[in-house]
Every structure is written in C-alpha cells, then in structure tokens.
Amino acid sequence: xxxxxxxxxxxxxxxxxxxxxxxxxxxxxxxxxxxxxxxxxxxxxxxxxxxxxxxxxxxxxxxxxxxxxxxxxxxxxxxxxxxxxxxxxxxxxxxxxxxxxxxxxxxxxxxxxxxxxxxxxxxxxxxxxxxxxxxxxxxxxxxxxxxxxxxxxxxxxxxxxxxxxxxxxxxxxxxxxxxxxxxxxxxxxxxxxxxxxxxxxxxxxxxxxxxxxxxxxxxxxxxxxxxxxxxxxxxxxxxxxxxxxxxxxxxxxxxxxxxxxxxxxxxxxx
Length: 270
Description:
By secondary structure, the chain is an alpha+beta fold. It has 2 domains: 13-193, no CATH class; 200-266. 45% of the residues lie in helices and 13% in strands. The chain has helices at residues 22-29, 53-56, 62-74, 117-126, 133-140, 150-161, 178-186, 200-208, 216-238, 242-266, and strands spanning 13-18, 37-40, 46-48, 81-86, 90-96, 103-108, 192-193. Strands 6-5-4-1-3-2-7 form a 7-stranded antiparallel β-sheet, with helices on both faces. A hairpin with a 5-residue loop joins β2 and β3 (46-48).
C-alpha cells in the first residue's frame, strides 16, 4: 500500500506560485502586509512562502487567506497566481488571474475529492496547459481513490505544473507546516525576504511601471480598480481578512497609479 511522508496532524501552510520573475513579484508583494521568503520556482515562476500569522495568530482559515493573497497579487498584473493551501482537514488550490473569478479545487485530508470537475478544466485553460494530456492527468486527481491522500494529490498537481515550467525548490513540499517551509525557503540560494509594506521606492516604481493594462484600456481598468478596491478593502477590514484587505489595497493603489500615469501621458507640455 502506498505510504506518504509523515507530517504533523496540525500542519497548516500555503505556497503562492506566481508566473513572473522574482523582481516583479517583489515589487507588489509588500502590499500583502506580511514579510515572506521569495524564491525562484522554475522558468518564469516564483514562489512566496507565507509565515502564516493570519491563521496562526488570528484564527482565519488558511484557504481564505491564501485566496485573498492570490487575488491581491494577480489583480491588474499580467501574470496568474496559484495559491496552494492545506490544514489538518483539507487541502486545495486557488488560481487567480486578473479580474476573473478565482477558480479552485479542494480535497479532504484522506484524498476524497470535494470540488467541481469543471474547475480543473478552467484551471488548465487559464494556465495554457495541454487540453488533452495535461487535462487527463488533472482529471485523475478528481477521482476517488482511498489510497491517495490529499498530499499525494497536491504532488500530482505539481507534477502536471512542471510541464508549464514550475520547479519547486527542494524542501518546499505542499503539506508541510508553514514554519518548516519558511526555514527551508530562507536557506535556499538566491532567496530574498519581501517587505511587510510597500516602501516609497517601490510605490514610485508602481506608479511609473504599474503591472497591468496600458493604452486605451488602461484608463478603464484603472477606474474599475479604484471603484472595486474601496469596498473590498472595507469588507476585508470588517471581516478581519488579511488576504482580502490586501486585495482591496492593491486594487486601489494600482488603479490610482494607472490613473496618474494616464494623466501624465495626456497632459499638455508647458
């Protein structure tokens, strides 16, 4: 019978995989409000390793936090963000890309699928995976098998993503406790630590080179972000959701930076 590497029953953690270079991820990661190790995770992929304060100290569910963080990083950016999360009872993923509704899937700890099959098809399409071979592998992860637990299914998901360029550094294994992952990530060559807040220099870089749409669509996107950001920020604060508060903040900041940039471009020269 297949066995899995043991992990504490209380293991809770998350990984944020961004299809972007570490420099681009570092630019906006400070808006999440939590310092995190940032490492390369393959060709044009980066990984953020949360310390887990929102679910460790605030009692917020890890899936809600990770989903909010993924949305915050992906909003207005030209790259998607995949949040992998797990706790004692469940494991799953959430894929966020721009203003699209996030898509995700959940497995119970014993591996029982608890998601919608359509989510896997949407997931594959948004990441540009092979609609036949890769989708077939993903759909296998949605079929019941009492000998395949949630951690093994997460590893199966990562195996499919290797064909999209993902290569998790050694030691960053889904299912491990957040503190263990953090220590392993910090020891990796080239690892850096993101700021807990966006510093003045990075805020200026966002205003000059915001990661989003440009041209005629830029102003419409900016207005939409500012309009959506304020209520989302308020909702996150009211529900004490660090992830969704960060998403609202990033919407507002990014939208404003786009408006400033658009205004500068269209202003007449003296």
